[in-house]
Amino acid sequence: MESSLIQDNPLLLPVNKEKTVYDGFITVQERDFRMRIVLPPDRQLKKAKLHCCWRLKHLLRGYEQIVKQRLRQSTHLVSFILELKTVLEVGLKSRPECRSVPSPQYYSQLIAEMETLGWDKLLFIDTEFRTLRLRAEDSCGREHVLTVKLKSKHPAEAPDCSADLPVPLALPWTPQSTLEQLHAHFLLVLESLTQFWDVLDEIDSKTWILEPERPSRSDTMRRIAIGNNVSIKVELDPRHPKMLPECCLLGAEHAVTPLRNKLNANMHSWNPDASVLLNLRDVLEIQFPSPATHDKSSFNVECGICYSYRLEAAVPDQVCNDPRCGQPFHQACLYEWLRALPSSRQSFSIVFGECPYCGKPITVKMAAHAP
After folding, report:
1. 104-192 homologous superfamily
2. How far apart are CA 67 and CA 158, in angstroms?
3. Which biological pathway (predicted)?
């Protein structure tokens, strides 16, 4: 019986002379699972204790009572191991994700690749050794994170890669590729975007940014404060960041119209060799308020009705056109306010009424969610 156990399970061996403790691996569908069986001195299986690795525990989830029952009813360790393997076979068939457990070579390959790349590049690795976050630094000292999700047949299968970038990430991979080569290609991608981030870093440091509130490395838009209730939204091309960006002026019409006229008249003088911020100053003929000269609280950007800046995804983009007022509102807030006024009127999708602050005429389009 003992020889049959060793013959069928050569990786599961007794570790003491009494042969009451067996430790090692059992193999099911070419997968090795670590386990330990501790028998009482009389070697009765019904009092035995079974210790499993976390993968084996996950696979046996839902079959615990069956395993305990077979442990009590089996008369020989050989028969119990055989029945346990049968349960594992069923578990593997019912849980396809368990069949993708990497081989031992996967882990040795991963460790060897990390040794070559450098452990200082590793920011995170999950408990399954599948998801890695690698640190990368561009030539300007900006830190970036490359998330790599390895497949069970690594390196034969290309990993899934993602990063906080303004362009799609496509890194070359062959069955001979390594994490070091992947990281090197990622650095080349970062280098191609260095000028784009340089432009945005200058804008972020020298102007007041109204949107996005917390810019990420993938954001290509900035809404820059020009004055009280007046701003410009610029959208840069990551591949050609110093070219004239898409521009949209926001604010009261009396303040926006002169700026729009200057932009249209001067855009031909845009100089791709100069900084984007300097070009914007020249074509608009203004000086942008900066953290060095203005406090952000001096820009009235909150909605005059709900007193908040962001309402779900919306920002205050409706402005009173009276030069002495210029109060901004969320479209939904202003629509609900005007609709509640007895004096307001509606023509098609436009609601006409009075500004809640100055009483001057103001209009708003019907909110998209309104009935």
Report:
1. Ubiquitin Conjugating Enzyme (3.10.110.10)
2. 38
3. Protein modification; protein ubiquitination
